[in-house]
Amino acid sequence: MTTTPHPAWLPDDAFTAIGRRRVVVAGDGALAGTVAEEVAAATARFGGSFSRLEVGDGVADAELVLTLTPPGLTEPGPTEPGADVDESFRFTREGGAVVVQAPCDAGLLHGLFHVVRLGEAAFDGPDADETHAPATGLRMLDHWDNVAVHPVMGQVERGYAGGSLFYDDGAVRADLSRLERYARLLAAVGINRVAINNVNVHAREALLLTDDLPEVARVAAVFRRWGIRVHLAVSFASPILLGGLATSDPLDADVAHWWVRAAARVWTAIPDFGGFVVKADSEGQPGPFAYGRTHADGANMLAAAVAPYDGLVHWRAFVYDHRQDWRDRSTDRARAAYDHFRPLDGAFADNVVVQVKYGPMDFQVREPVSPVLAAMPRTRIALELQVTQEYTGQQRHAVYLGPQWSEILGFRFWAAPGDAAADDSPTVADLATGRGKAAEDPGTGAWRKPAGGFAAVSNTGDDEFWTGHPFAQANLYAYGRLCWDPGLDPSALLDEWAGLTFPGAPDAVRAALHAVLDRSWETYEQYTTPLGVGFMVRPGHHYGPDVDGYEYTPWGTYHFADRDGIGVDRTTRTGTGYAGQYPSPWREVYESVETCPDELLLFFHHVPYTHVLHSGSTVIQHVYDTHFEGVERVERMIEAWSAVSPLVDERLAERVAERLAEQLRSATEWRDQVNTYFLRKSGIPDERGRTIY
């Protein structure tokens, strides 16, 4: 690792427009001080001027004023229970002079980075008066970092960008200067919360709650300067592991008291601590099921302990049987989260956020949106995404996930495509942010859902380029920006990231980046798993093709390919009943092979290889065509990047070239293995006569 990491979307030149102007920062507060430091550095670098004043004094000749709104002039915006302060800001431009006003210094920080993103465009154009506020006060990144290097999963579980930014050699890093740079990057895109350790809490990591609490406080102090609150993932069995108790039964008084004392210690050391993240009864992690208790029992016991401090409990809904009998087709992993959590709607405390993966399986390149998001109208639900590319190329492949997330955020459970009333139906983003209009839910009538926010697994590490593949920075950028405003265009966000990351580069560079990344999610889907079938990866590390890798394992991730067809029957009529977990109209859309979208056909139906898709192609020919086309697209990606790579930094160009070469090798292997598998299963040749082995 180099001592100077890549600047990502905050290179010095990104501050040129601010740095060459007369700038005033007015107001006090810790984050106002951070804003002042950023402006002072930019103006010193580019020849502008900087003044730090009291609110409203001496700003007449400034070209940019960043000021706290004088008390009494505005009312703070609403925040969710457990959320941060009002982060809104007002942006006005008059005669080329810009004023950013915010009721709180957190809004001032976000206003600064808004001006940075706009660059010269902030000061050009007609007069403007805009108010900006985040869609939700809960915009979180979960870091699956281990304090000690795990013998199987390593320093960062599912991490593809080197070691941990937080830990080294079994302890919190002594030098946190790089973590400061990281916090600055996150603040620039609107992230305001981070969980700093793996949700699979091993013995060493459990000590962050007790012995290592002073070290956690050091980390929290770094993030505090950038308006970001720190959370910890905790083991449900902590009273046993750390407290010497014989049980972690959530209804046991001694267990509850242990957590009360633990919370008191944490908030005494870190007054702005955010709360706990819990993975329970999942993939071997302990939980309330061991004591015959529900997940609401477990979550609410913790919620009571943290409630005096306005703390949150993020309780993950990723609960399923990972010891399934592959012979038993009635057991369906996809059903599990709904079956466990739907009956508990309304049973969770107000400061519990149930964190739900976007799909029912496990961050696949294509899944239906999880019905749990629609099934718990009286529960705070957070949408969980995966920025780290576990099943989408592991940051060895260039795969921009902004379009996937935008599609998920815009999904409407109570309106089918083309429905004239769709605009009156809440989106997934509305359900997560509490901004949904009234809608009919299955069971309780009209409702307005409480806000839960967004969470995602981070993709960063101590690699020189933060994310391993330099282009994977675009995913972290897009995640933060979509959390702030889920309605943003992911294609425009890609261009925004490119413009900031490569300021002053020829237009050809930005055009090439767009050409490589804009449809790369679709490209990855083409050369990997077809029509929503999922997985087909090597067990364990999950990289590269292995069509039957999980087919006869306990993990419940099957495709059921035989000589006649492929896919999982998840209908209510003849299958597992999963389709019935959706409200109308999607229950009926997914139930019927005639109306099920092509891209999810094999997720919901077992069909013959000769089944004709809506596209007009048969299933088997679709498999062949998309896998050949996917490889051809990667070849074009390499051509586009090769043409402009001499125009960027040599080290970055070398890293990208190396990653693209691996992507082409891997895509070719995916194509050949998947096509060969289905040729041998079906006996049906490619109608175009291409080479299949």
From TrEMBL:
Molecular function GO labels: alpha-glucuronidase activity; xylan alpha-1,2-glucuronosidase activity
GO biological process: xylan catabolic process
Domain of life: Bacteria
Residues annotated as domain Glycosyl hydrolase family 67 catalytic: 129-466
Cellular component terms per the entry's GO annotation: extracellular region
InterPro entries the record matches: A-glucoronidase_C_sf, GH, Glyco_hydro_67_C, Glyco_hydro_67_cat
Span of domain Glycosyl hydrolase family 67 C-terminal: 467-690
Entry-linked Pfam families: Glyco_hydro_67C (PF07477), Glyco_hydro_67M (PF07488)
Name under which the protein is recorded: Xylan alpha-(1->2)-glucuronosidase
Originating species: Promicromonospora citrea
Gene name in the database record: aguA
